[in-house]
Amino acid sequence: MATGVQLDHRVRPMDQVGDTVARLITLMFAASIVLVAVLIVSVLWKDSAAAREKLGWGFLLSSQWNPVTEQFGGLPFIYGTVVTSVLALLISVPLGLGSAIFLSELAPPRISSGLTFLIELLAAIPSVIYGLLAIFTLVPLMRVYVEPFLRTTLGFLPLFRGLAYGVGYLTAGVILAVMTLPFIVSVSRESLLAVPREQREAALALGATRWETTWQVVVPYARLGIMGSIFLALARALGETMAVTMVIGNSSAIHASLFAPGHTIAAVIANEFAEATGDVYRGVLIELGLVLFCLTIVLNGLARLMILATTGKGSKRA
Amino acid sequence: MSRLVFRKAVNNVMLSITGIFTVVTVSSLFVILGYLVFNGGKSLDWNFFTRLPLSPGEEGGGMANAIVGSAAIVGLAAVIGIPIGFLAGVYLSEYEDRAFASVVRYVADLLNGVPSIVIGIVAWTLVVVPMKQFSALAGAIALAIMLVPIVSRQTEQFLREVPSSLREGALALGAHRWKMIATVVVPAGSKGVLTGMILGVARVAGETAPLLFTAFNNQFWTTSLGQPAATLPVQIYIRATSPYEDWHRQAWAAGLVLIALVLVANIAARMVLARGISVPRG
To answer: Is B277 in contact with A43 (Cβ distance < 8 A)?
Structure first.
């Protein structure tokens, strides 16, 4: 404090000590967050040592998975993770961006914030509940109607051939799409709302229609934040465990058809970790966990930088 | 002129599509809630809250032990995670050292996005392996690890919204910084901070993946934290994926109870703040 020199004789030493102590204590707890992150990385690294020594990283490219004969190929899980996440984004990005545009550009503020709250509630629903609903409602729906329909209309593509199981990549993709929607809507809407009013007015004054203004001026202006929301959603989709585990079908092989059962990294860990015997088997699962961890860290890291650059530092809400 | 007509048509079509997309997105929430209330309401009975589960295939039974187990694990996670997260949040908002605080903030955000199954592996290594058995404690630690970054960011956010005039007033009266924080800033921001904590707890209460190989499951009452424990989310997972009709019924009932808790927490938080609650980032 600037006036400290004159007031020093009145300050009780207790208070000065208190200041230092309070600062150190809170600093310690803040540092513990960084410590936890370091701990996570070191645990994953150390526990996968047995697998890394025996198999190296090459197992990620092998597609044979048979723990009984100690064949550990990680490719089916990586393939499943990527395919389900991409499917999810193919559905949730247009739907989410469209909703975000409506909520930021067209809806009156009161209605917009109410609807946004409802959409954000989707993010509060626990993953296992999505899984529960998917098993009993989405899976039969996919098996009886959607997949046979896709087969008859798009069956010339290898992606849409084969038996309609109901469980599999496509179903997992659909449920992931619903789960990632709130992230895309919420963050994209904030990015769109952060676009200065003058941008819209200038475009409208030049004779652009409302849609042209939105699509050619507002959306490009907010593109970094929108990209950020997509990355955020992708990171979520990659790491999503329960809902996917419940509908993916748990087949450790790669199938060309989207109707076929598959597996993802998170799902195989959830399914097999508790029963994994031997350091190598468990180590492989942890190594897969490490891969997943790194992927989500990178995606999240990029997403946050993009969102920060668009919506401005510190401003969490529009 | 036809060019203009075309542009106007595109305008109308595209804007309508965004409206339709919004309706689809919002209605997915109502479809989900509708199914849960319909199926869960049919399945929920008094036994659910008071009885222990029966063996597979037997009709009846409840989830009393899972309800208590969830409460104990989430409660313990809150006891561990909330103080750490809160104090870290106070640091981020009040003692900002430029470089370190932004590192912590960024790391907290990244931790928020770590897949929960990975947190499960870490808690397994740190607690289950040394103790040589699955335990409620391990589950609580896994959830606490998830809770810390959420609570710290929420605390920071709400403390930052306390007007600086309040801080300056306290300092001008001669209060020391720590006293100013403890008696002025925290009380002023307490409503928001509390809401943040409730939302954080509601979020981890629904987590299943980190509990699968930490708290594991238990058919009976868990009498100590060193034993495996049943929890509602894990029960939903096990029962929904089982082949038994009566277990499916109970999974729906448990789903309804869980979602009711989560929604009440979220809507209450919304009403307390009377403002938008952002999606927990990450």
So the answer is: no
